[in-house]
Amino acid sequence: MIAVVDYGAGNLGSVDKALRYLGVPAQVTADPGVVRSADAVILPGVGAFQHCMSGLQVRMLQEPVLEVIRSGRPFLGICIGMQMLFSWSEEGGHVPGLDVIAGAVRRFPVSVSGRRLKVPHMGWNTLELVKECPLFVGLPERPRVYFVHSYYCEPADGDVVAARTDYGISFCSALQRENIFAVQFHPEKSGAVGLEVLRNFVALSS
After folding, report:
1. Does the model's pTM come out above 0.85?
2. How many domains does the chain contain in total?
3. Is 52 annotated as catalytic?
4. What is the pLDDT of residues 147-165, one digit of tens each?
5. Active site includes 51?
């Protein structure tokens, strides 16, 4: 069973719908015990970093999520679920994250080399796949996926970067370290490519 962690953030319904479409036994849950016993865990979400971190802590879900990660079971962070893995975020000040991946979450600049950027970065963009990753099996060479975010992840260790995307700057749009996977884009909103990413993740838990 795959646990989709419900910590009060949005977008859980579309993730659950995508998994059901794939025929995956998944459960949206705020129960720490269910998260602890899951075969794999997905941490999705949209919203403000501090609010999402508080949601995990108030619902006593932070430690179960960390236990799953430490156990070696497959873990997938989506959008803010990726950002929360990092040491801290600029959003709302210097807000601590889960510190699973060393590094910071930073806001997109409003301009780069005189070019103004629309923030949030919203819509379809291309992944540059920079290392072999189980999530990318069967994907085209430069897949297009859907983004909605104002902040991007900056890992201290470049070896964890699995894909990069250009939006004025080149930023980490997917990462992998051992059993930990995370994507800044929304696979549940990324059509056939996104469904293949989710299908590949599910295969890791079977």
Report:
1. yes
2. 1
3. no
4. 999 999 999 999 999 999 9
5. no
